[in-house]
Amino acid sequence: MGRITLDKVSKSFGEVEVIPPLDLTIDDGEFVVFVGPSGCGKSTLLRLIAGLEDVSGGEIRIDREPATHLPPAKRRLAMVFQSYALYPHMTVRKNIAFPLRMAGLDKAEQDRKVEEAARVLNLTDYLDRRPGQLSGGQRQRVAIGRSIVREPSAFLFDEPLSNLDAALRVGMRLEISELHARLKTTMIYVTHDQVEAMTMADKIVVLQAGRIEQVGSPLELYRTPKNVFVAGFIGSPKMNLFSGPEAAKHDAHTIGIRPEHIAASTTEGTWQGRVVVSEHLGSDTFLHVHDTGLAEVMTVRVDGEFDVRHGDSVFLTPEPDKIHRFDAAGLRIA
Amino acid sequence: MSTKASRSAARAMISPSVLLLLCWMVVPLAMTVWFSLLRYNLLMPGAHPFVGLENYQYFVSDPAFTDAIVNTLLLVGGVLLITVVGGVLLALLLDLPIWGQGIVRIMVIAPFFVMPTVSALVWKNMFFDPVNGLFGHLAKTIGVQPYDFLAQAPLASIIGIVSWQWLPFATLILLTALQSLDSEQLEAAEMDGAGAFARFYHIVVPHLARAVTVVILIQTIFLLSVFAEIFVTTNGGPGTASTNLTYLIYKESLLSFDVGTGSAGGVIAIILANIVAIFLMRMIGRNLDA
């Protein structure tokens, strides 16, 4: 259970094709993250899987059963929406019980399941409140509670953390990861935040303009990005990408080097530049270096103790085996 | 923004309008109450002696009074029922993506802009009239005796006319409420296994509760004082079959020229309206909190 296969699935809104035919397999129990810039079609793809949008072509199979034309309720999937979509006039208890009530479970069974979900999600004290009286994180947990009581074959999350503040987001990220570890149910998670993707996913699907750019584990994408887009999208701060004579030296059209794979020195190195901004995070310092003759700005991660200021000259040396090479079409050269 | 100076300035600035409004309300009210305690009939010029509550006694013991109260409540209740139920259904229809949506919406709202006298005349002469009316023609084409709506079902006919006028208002308010419903909630309910009817009952109806409250409160205020429609169509008849409280007061003071009794009726109407308002606020006013 919980295996989802997309076979040449495509979606057009009128004349506009937002998702050209794509194939994707999500294995049972996997935590898959769809990541991409806004408007890349990741939410649409999720809604196609949920059945909230009709596919324009292709086939969706859930647990090997064809599900392309099943209504959302019959797909045994649960979805957590960006706005949480809690029912404002119902108490937390009734919100969580709603899918059970719709399924026609008897009252005692409903109560048992709601209590259990509330216990798992630390919501027991809030069961008789309404969504309006809860904090963002608690609402998020109610939305998750409403989806777990149904015991779905897969969970779908549509940017669930984007309405939370930074501290809560980190906390909820952990909670969702723990939930996945405990339930071992397939989860599909949509986000534009590559940090969420890297930290939570078993498998990341990078999308751009409705096309899958690369599918792989977080470290695979980090170590061997298939193309310039993935190289620039995955990793924080972004990879330095540049073309020109320096790239030609490596027999490539474009080369890329991550900020953490460049050593900086005030005395000697391969490239020279001028520090414009240094961002001190305590443990690390990010240098934004101009006038290197490579990219307009080179970002370098150095040790927190490295002391340079605006206008200082700095020398940069890349780790030679960490240079990514790409051809003129932007594809990786092995 | 709320320093001591700004607050006292604000108080000084609004006091003229408050005073004006106060006079506007208090003076006519006081005069009505005063007239209601006098024997004041325009057909009997001369002194207007103070008679205490005689006018009230006379007005309340008039057999037409009970009829008028019942008719008023039937009129308000009937119109509210039709406009709220019909308004919800129309709003649901208008919320669907259809071709020519803008034009359809304007046409649906149009009756609200027709003044009551005109719409009542249109209904009376072009629809209800058994000889020249559309309904009469329809009845004749299918070979049925035309039904004289205003003579045989006067109150129901007036309820129909007033509902036709107020349906657009209810539809408009309910449509905007419907459009403010988060579509993700409906999608969530759909994924939770709720069918179309369950979604309507569990999600849409509670969401509309507040808008329905507003519609009921506002319409009640206006429906308690329906006059033009009755005046133009039935003149409160036959007998008192379509006389409501407003029309009865009109009859007393302007057809019988009895200012004293008419004023007493006015005061009673104010009291009744307030009783209804208190009930309404108690029953549904809490929907407006939060």
From TrEMBL, chain A:
GO terms for molecular function: ABC-type maltose transporter activity; ATP binding; ATP hydrolysis activity. Pfam families: ABC_tran, TOBE_2. Residues 4-234 form the ABC transporter domain. InterPro entries: AAA+_ATPase (IPR003593), ABC_transporter-like_ATP-bd (IPR003439), ABC_transporter-like_CS (IPR017871), ABC_transpr_MalK-like (IPR015855), ABC_transpr_MalK/UgpC-like (IPR047641), Mo/tungstate-bd_C_term_dom (IPR008995), NA-bd_OB-fold (IPR012340), P-loop_NTPase (IPR027417). The keyword ATP-binding applies. Gene3D superfamilies: 2.40.50.100, Nucleic acid-binding proteins (2.40.50.140), P-loop containing nucleotide triphosphate hydrolases (3.40.50.300). Keywords: ATP-binding, Nucleotide-binding, Transport. Transmembrane segments: none annotated. The keyword Endoplasmic reticulum does not apply. It comes from the Bacteria. One of its GO terms (cellular component) is ATP-binding cassette (ABC) transporter complex, substrate-binding subunit-containing. Belongs to the ABC transporter superfamily. NCBIfam families: PRK11650.1. PANTHER family: MALTODEXTRIN IMPORT ATP-BINDING PROTEIN MSMX, MALTOSE_MALTODEXTRIN IMPORT ATP-BINDING PROTEIN MALK. This is Sugar ABC transporter ATP-binding protein. The lineage of its organism: Bacteria, Pseudomonadati, Pseudomonadota, Alphaproteobacteria, Rhodobacterales.
